[in-house]
Amino acid sequence: MSSIAQQESLVKESLFQFITRNIPSADLNGIDDIVLSYVISILEEASQDPCFDVEGFIEMMAAYVPEFDRIEADLVLSWVLELEAELTSRGETDSLSHDDSAGSDRISLTLQSLTEMLPPANKGTRSHSNSSSSSDAADYRRPLEDDTDTLWHEQTRALADMFPNTATMEIKHCISIAHGSLERAAATLLHRREQGQALSAAALHCAARAPEIDDRELKSRIIARYSYVDKDAETKEHKPLAPKIEPKKMVRYRDNKIVSLKGERYTEVPKSGADEENLKKPKKQHCP
Fold this sequence. Notes:
It is a single chain. The chain has twelve helices and four strands; from the N terminus they run H-H-H-H-H-H-H-H-H-H-H-E-E-E-E-H. It is mainly alpha-helical. The protein is elongated and about 135 Å long. About 15% of the residues have low confidence. It comes from Plutella xylostella (Diamondback moth).
C-alpha cells in the first residue's frame, strides 16, 4: 500500500468522482479528513472481509452527504471493492515497520505512559503485523491469521474499558490506523479527541434525512393534525336571532328646542301613543 498522503489523495479523488457521477448536485464541502479516514478504515475492512456492512457505510456517509443514501447498495459495494483493488495494485515495497515509524512521527503527544493505563491482562498484547523489509503491498493484504480477529476484539474491549464514552466505530477506526497496536491506537484516540476529530455517536447513528415535501402536502398535514374543519358548515343555514330589546331612539331636539335643561345631551323618545299625543298636544289657550 502507498504512503498515507498518496493513499488519502487517491481515496479523496475516487470518492469525489463517485459522488459527482451518481449525485451531480451534491455538496462536497462537508467531506473532510474525518470522512476520508473513515473511508480508508472501511477499505481496510473490505480487504479482509468483502461482506462488510454496506448499509452502515451508506448511513454514515449520508450524515455528511445527505443524498448519499439514494445510491444503490450494489453500486457502493462495487466502488469500494474496485477502489480497494486499485490501492492494492499501487502498493509500494515499503515495510510495515517503516509505516509504523512514519505514523509515529505524525503523532507527537506529551502524555503519560500508556502501559500503566492498560489492564494487566492486556499489557502483553501486541500486534503481529510486522514483517520483513522485502514484504510488499500484496503481502500486507493477505488474509490474517485465525487469532487476529480475537486479538482485535480484545483490543477493542480494552480501549472500551479505558474510554467508556467513546463510540465503538471510533475505537475500531483507531485500531485499524495503528495496525493493531494497542498503545498507538490509544495515543491516536487521544490525539483525535484533542484535535476535535473523533467520530461522535450522534454522527454514527444519524438517520437519513426525510424526503422533502411540497407546500400543498405540508399544508394538508398541518390541517389534518392541528385544525378543525366543520364539514356541515356549507349545508347549514344562518338564521340570526332577532334582538329581544329594540334599541332606544335618542333625540336631542324636539320642536326646535332642547329636550332637557338638566345637562343630558339626549333623551329617550316615549313609545306609547298616549305619550306621543301628550307631547304633541298644544298648550291650553287662556282667554282674555
